[in-house]
Specification:
CATH topology of the largest domain: Cobalt-precorrin-4 Transmethylase, domain 1
Structural class: alpha/beta
Distance between the termini: 8 Å
Oligomer: single chain
CATH architecture of the largest domain: 3-Layer(aba) Sandwich
Bound molecules: iron/sulfur cluster
Largest sheet: 4 strands, parallel
Number of helices: 11
Number of domains: 3
Number of strands: 12
CATH superfamily of the largest domain: 4-hydroxy-3-methylbut-2-enyl diphosphate reductase, catalytic domain
Radius of gyration: 21 Å
Order of helices and strands: EHEHEHEHEHEHEHEHEHEHEEH
Strand order of the largest sheet: 1-12-10-11
Strand content: 15-25%
Shape: flat
Length: about 290
């Protein structure tokens, strides 16, 4: 039995930066006697969030803030998660005089900025991504009238006026191949759509690496949060090339049956999966094989 890791996997710099920020803020603000909150899931990994809870952070959800049922008081401290939040939430937090530390990843912040700039210069925005994902909800909330499509099929159904100019932006974790299909469709049908590829580099190299891995292994274990968009994409890509692909959150989810008779075991992890979770899984695999 051989365990083969994807060439690129695990924590991206956006997630690592958000967790670093949490630790620094907790140290500084606890000394000042302040409560430190995190907005929703700081990163899409329950293990990471649970660890942060144990360290003393409290979680507050967007829904609580929007309905006015949150526990926040003036002077409390809140950290905005790596994939950002909506303009409305920023406004409410500012009104409440809560101290904001913003861990929004630079890639997400850049898309937000581009969207606002493009609308100001007369572009209509088409956004490719999952409209229910917090990153997408956050980014498009800064726009006036953004059309969101999940994929090429949805894009074909929206109205694109040939007499107007459009700018197409994307979620950071979009599958590169899906974007290529969209690009070739638009280049052949709509010359008035400017396409700005905003898939983040960390996402792209992880997606390419899992494809490579899935082709040369007997089984692929994808490790990450069940609500993590980038982890789900890694799973989908791997599954396209290797039907023995499994998505797990940690070693407890690993079923030894999946590994029976398998020689080359591939492993990859989403951008918010800590290294120690991957190591625990590798150790469990070695234990199963007595290797
Ligand atoms: S996946 Fe990309 S956009 Fe998201 S936090 Fe990581 S580096 Fe930033």
């Amino acid at each position: 039995m051989e365990i083969i890791r994807a060439k690129h996997m695990g924590f991206c710099f956006g997630v690592a930066g958000a967790i670093d920020m949490c630790h620094k803020v907790l140290k500084d603000e606890e000394n000042n006697g302040k409560k430190v909150y995190i907005l929703g899931m700081l990163v899409h990994n329950e293990n990471v969030v649970e660890e942060l809870r144990k360290e003393g952070f409290e979680l507050v959800e967007e829904e609580e803030i929007l309905s006015g049922e949150d526990p926040l008081n003036p002077g409390d401290v809140i950290i905005i998660r790596a994939h950002g939040t909506t303009e409305e939430i920023y406004n409410i937090l500012n009104k409440k005089k809560v101290k904001i530390y913003d861990a929004t990843c630079v890639f997400v912040a850049k898309i937000r900025k581009t969207l606002v700039e493009k609308e100001k210069t007369g572009y209509n925005i088409v956004f490719i991504g999952d409209k229910n994902h917090p990153e997408v909800r956050g980014i498009i909330s800064f726009g006036q009238k953004v059309q969101v499509c999940a994929d090429l099929e949805e894009l074909k159904k929206i109205e694109i006026d040939k007499n107007k100019k459009y700018c197409l932006l994307t979620q950071t974790t979009l599958n590169k191949k899906n974007l290529e299909k969209i690009k070739s469709y638009l280049e052949n049908t709509h010359s008035n759509v400017k396409i700005l590829d905003k898939i983040c580099g960390a996402t792209q190299v992880r997606q390419e690496a899992v494809e490579e891995l899935a082709k040369v292994t007997d089984v692929v274990i994808v490790v990450g949060g069940k609500n993590s968009s980038n982890t789900k994409k890694l799973y989908d890509i791997s599954n396209n090339f290797n039907s023995n692909t499994y998505l797990i959150q940690d070693d407890k989810d690993l079923d030894p049956e999946w590994l029976k008779g398998k020689k080359r075991i591939g492993i990859t992890a989403g951008a918010s999966t800590p290294e120690e979770i991957v190591i625990n899984i590798e150790n469990k695999i070695r234990g199963i094989f007595n290797a």
